[in-house]
């Protein structure tokens, strides 16, 4: 693995490294860790990278690595830069035969996303998008129960992702995370909707198997002085006219990462929240509520749930393990392809190019709906 | 107290009687308990009413009672019939000098509500509307904290009331509760929005002190064969452009009475849910979350909270006590008026005619918005 | 109903009155509400008692009431005085043909308890002991599931009742509740063990159907200056050598009324806590946990559970309703006896004389064990 | 790092590898992974170990590694074998200059533990004992709050670790984990008390800073056919006569890993449970309860808490991260020693030889108390 971005002054890069390390399948071999050469070098040293594979630009990294012998060079690059700087390294990596892991939202514009899709179709390479929450075992359990028809026909979906960390204008106080996320030139058309609304939308589609077809968005700037939405509420319509609600806020003061989903069907409803991720509540219409719990050995565990656990029930896994599941499944897929075998459906269970395109379409559409005076806006892709 | 409706085949009448009994301040003295004379008589007997005060119609009751000597006749009537049958007894009671307790929504139409308001202004009598949830101690604690500015300026409100009991067409299987509630001739213009959406809207306005000014409603009939909404999601705008979301469903299979409200301000957010009513979660931006608990002796309790508790912290009170708080405050208000003293603000803390008019306006407006293709509909009253 | 104790300066008397009022079956007709004549009179007035039935002593009350015609006089007396003043009015009431409701612990000594038992056997009258917690619907649900063998053979019981209100020497600061409870002359041999340990022991025996046969007690005085235990931990042995643990503390600072029980059997365990009383957690060995919920209409509800609910699932009932269930069942039993019919097992489901004798035996035995240097003390009665 | 035990048929070895991998500080370089040569070889291959460092016995590994040049050979060995096989590799490692990580309980007998202590004192090497739960951020937060005197003088400690996985005789059905743990020749004198009771005792002493001085144990075999306790309840006395209760069961059917501790002081109590590890409940005597949450950026976080977090508040960390904290702190300590600097107190914050000796003393003493007919047994070391 070679990393683009993620130097010592960054946040998500460290998370990616832990996730990649966890199962002993992936090794960080090189990096272009910062556009600041000093930071790039220092970060490489801290991470025990050899000096000659501590690059100053992603272009250099991709060029040099592609010239190395097959058994030495990296298998994929991981892109953990701000949104506006996803496309260029991803495109160049694909053009040079490297698989790609990329942070969400996948690109800066929908057009870039479609362009990457084309490159993937042409190259046969693999792209992995780190929609972390789809990596949680109980999210997979929920998906399997919906797929299995346990809830009957789905009738309603409520998904929300509430944070409070942008409750003040911290982008003006030197908070680097806040700074690029609230800047339309780095973040894109949307603020909260791009940063966390995309996660919520992805989770709803991932579990339910349905897709959003219409939206009615109310996007707000609740902290004065911002250029992008820091809060939004969206009425949804999924396939089969299933109604839904999506709420995302980064100014819900006091909230940490309150991502929560509820899906109701004819026979019952299920509820999952990231902050207590090892529990899946299933409320039945005609029988007592059930509480499914994560764990390879847990009662009622689905095959996908089991494959994405490392500990027995009651020893909680968390965000880093969910992240690691995405890397592990991706790694297994690459290994299968290298060995010439067909990856299993469990291996292929990580977000990819289709999710990335839909994420960018979500951003385009939700902003369009937010700006419209009509109630419903069709979801275009 | 004389009761209209609430015979042995009804539900909410029994709840009212328990609530009125609880504090030993109110006595059921007479009733017109059913439009079915047999049931009216049997119900009177079961409730130990004297035969000569077991009436067959509310007209008879109001007429006869108004002819009794002041120290014998009832002080107020309680109306627990279906929505379409609220106005007539309420109007006649007011015209004959009786105070009124009435179930929500207050009337069948907004016009009736305005009419009752006029009668009250002219008569100086008192009307109490049983928006039960405003009777919970921790709802009052929440209101006091908002009023006190603890959260800073309010930024966002999310309120939801999810039930599952209409997940099947139970109105066709002899469920009396389901039957009138899903019938536009008895229930009014709205289904779920009238029955529980009004509770949610009232709670949001009661705690926040703000009022809804615009709505964007998506009302749905999710169980085929119904004439009225059984589910709805509404984007809101309160005073000062504060955004909000209101969700109400009676087909959220597996839910019981999941009424929940979250209010976010500059400094933090608070959260309350009926199903764990003695707890108020307060999440701060800059300090650890606090958990306020109900109880006359509870740490940090506000004066309104204390006045509406009967037990020490840790001995849970519930729905019936919240209901009884409304009756008790109403009774204290009547007693003060009878004694010629000024009721205190704590006594006057029960929903009344203004809440009733706003509730009916909510129904009119939410249905109008639901039918509109424009995003925002102004809240008219 | 005639009340002994419970004047305006008392706590539990008001709770009893609410509980008795709730269902409209019981009327407070007379009282000897305080040993202070002023308070007795004022309290009678506040409670709307007629002057001639506002007595100054229980002796006067029992004497005068027993001389009244059968259709006028009370059916039972309720004793809500401190422990040392339970026996005399109870004995006199029974001797004069009145049924009795009495607060726990039933008497001051085990001998008094046995004496009351004899009077009951001779008179055929009924005594009801207000072990409140056995009145909760989900406690009954738990008992029914154990009885039904759902958990298999019972293997272990953990019961605890932790409060914090005696964490300071509040008995020296004019706290009347604290004052008599920490005084051996008024409270009896035990402090916390008598006041709340008896509740815990009763709950464990009530749900499990087992009886304590041995104890190993560690009783402590954790706040200096006290004469009676304010904290204790007890190893238990029930029938069939089932092990258990009972913990009770009134100096667990920060706790409210944290009464909680866990019972484990071969197939699973159940857990109930007063502070969230409408939920019963059932953890299975081989299947997902289930959450049973209170409510007359709740899924999986047992017949006893249903009989002791007033509201549908999701409208929480609490401590006062549990208390009222004891009064209601007792009242139905008296009514059946008056009508000459056999009370049903649901009517007879309230704690009585046997529970009272066992409660006093618990106190004697736990204190004996606490004073012993031997590990195990046999439970003698 | 070289690993002893932990082959492909084992459980805890994989956990250790993930924990060691997580932060990119430690590399698995060699192993004697199984006493079965086939499994040892296959496991080495699966873990990408070079063939010449895939050893068949720990003796071979220690001998060969000690002959390698300093910059090639491992810095420490990790012992993840059953209890009876801890001492020999630990002693040999220390004798040959290797630091040691070892699973708990540290040895088979107290004497072995004391012997290791002597070797450490003589060699100046470092031993790390994986009492996982002390690695959780909120455990450290709790310890810091106790140390800081926030609760006032400690008055009572309740600690419990309940599991259900031995509810059946699974050791007879080929469950390898169950098999050695229930075998006195492999597990030692105690069953549940050794396996999980030691964790509970360690947690209580770690957070409170107090030490157990007396015990009164009731050890049980609740599943017939066992030779060692599978359940136990122990009354405790800590320094300053502080009372406590320790419960540990492996037959609490339905429980997963319900490790929970409550500590009460003069001003309030705190509560932590492994199954919701990122939350610390602090219940105050005089103010509303507070909920501290894990996260490097969490409000009120102590310095030790911050050092042991990887993610912001609301992205849950779990068991593996707690485990990794122990490895990370240990690794930082070794690195400091190698660099000749003084490890900080935060680096030194991992369980070591003293904890190991006390753990073995706990086992000896609790078994002695269990066999005694006297109430209290002094804790001897």
Give the topology.
The structure is a homotetramer of 381-residue chains.
Chain A: E1 2-4, H1 12-21, E2 30-32, H2 37-46, H3 58-66, E3 76-79, H4 87-95, E4 99-102, H5 110-123, E5 127-129, H6 137-147, E6 154-162, H7 176-181, H8 184-187, H9 192-208, E7 212-220, E8 231-238, E9 243-249, E10 258-265, E11 268-273, E12 279-284, E13 289-293, H10 303-307, H11 319-339, H12 353-371, E14 377-378
Parallel strand pairs in A: 1-2, 1-3, 3-4, 4-5, 6-9
Antiparallel strand pairs in A: 6-10, 7-8, 7-14, 8-9, 10-11, 11-12, 12-13
Helix pairs in contact in A: 1-11, 4-5, 5-12, 6-9, 9-12
Reported for the largest beta sheet of chain A, the result is:
9 strands, mixed
Question: Which regions of chain A have little confidence, pLDDT < 50, spanning 5+ residues?
Answer: none
Helical region count of chain A?
12
C-alpha geometry of chain A: globular
CA-CA gap between termini of chain A: 32 Å
What oligomeric state is this?
Answer: homotetramer
Helix content of chain A: 25-40%
The radius of gyration over CA of chain A amounts to 21 Å
The strand count of chain A comes to 14
Mean pLDDT of chain A, to the nearest integer, reads 96
Beta-strand residue fraction of chain A: 15-25%
- Give helix and strand order of chain A, one letter per element, not per position: EHEHHEHEHEHEHHHEEEEEEEHHHE
Strand order of the largest sheet of chain A: 13-12-11-10-6-9-8-7-14
Structural class of chain A: alpha/beta
User: Most extensive interface, residues per chain?
Assistant: A-B, 41 and 41 residues
């Amino acid at each position: 693995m070679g990393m683009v971005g993620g130097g010592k002054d960054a946040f998500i890069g460290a998370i990616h490294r832990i996730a990649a390390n966890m199962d002993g399948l992936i090794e960080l071999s090189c990096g272009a860790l910062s556009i600041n050469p000093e930071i790039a070098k220092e970060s490489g040293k801290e991470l025990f990278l050899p000096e000659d594979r501590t690059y100053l630009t992603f272009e250099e990294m991709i060029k040099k690595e592609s010239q190395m012998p097959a058994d030495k060079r990296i298998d994929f690059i991981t892109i953990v830069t701000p949104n506006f700087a996803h496309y260029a390294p991803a495109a160049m990596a694909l053009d040079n035969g490297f698989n790609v892991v990329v942070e969400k939202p996948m690109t800066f514009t929908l057009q870039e996303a479609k362009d990457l899709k084309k490159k993937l179709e042409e190259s046969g390479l693999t792209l992995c998008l780190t929609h972390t929450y789809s990596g949680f075992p109980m999210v997979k359990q929920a998906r399997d129960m919906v797929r299995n028809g346990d809830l009957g026909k789905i009738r309603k979906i409520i998904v929300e992702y509430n944070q409070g960390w942008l409750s003040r204008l911290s982008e003006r106080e030197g908070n680097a995370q806040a700074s690029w996320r609230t800047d339309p030139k780095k973040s894109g058309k949307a603020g909260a909707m791009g940063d966390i609304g995309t996660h919520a939308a992805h989770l709803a589609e991932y579990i339910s198997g349905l897709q959003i077809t219409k939206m009615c968005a109310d996007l707000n700037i609740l902290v004065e002085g911002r250029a992008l939405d820091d809060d939004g509420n969206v009425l949804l319509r999924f396939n089969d006219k299933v109604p839904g609600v999506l709420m995302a806020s980064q100014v819900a003061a006091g909230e940490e990462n309150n991502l929560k989903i509820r899906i109701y069907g004819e026979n019952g409803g299920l509820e999952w929240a990231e902050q207590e991720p090892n529990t899946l509540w299933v409320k039945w219409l005609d029988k007592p509520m059930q509480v499914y719990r994560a764990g390879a050995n847990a009662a009622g565990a689905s095959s996908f749930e089991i494959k994405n656990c490392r500990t027995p029930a009651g020893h909680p896994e968390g965000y880093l393990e969910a992240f690691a599941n995405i890397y592990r499944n991706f790694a297994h897929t690459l290994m299968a392809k290298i060995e010439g075998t067909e990856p299993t459906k469990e291996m292929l269970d990580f977000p990819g190019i289709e999710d990335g395109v839909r994420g960018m379409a979500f951003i385009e559409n939700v902003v369009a709906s937010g700006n419209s005076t009509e109630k419903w806006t069709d979801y275009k892709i």
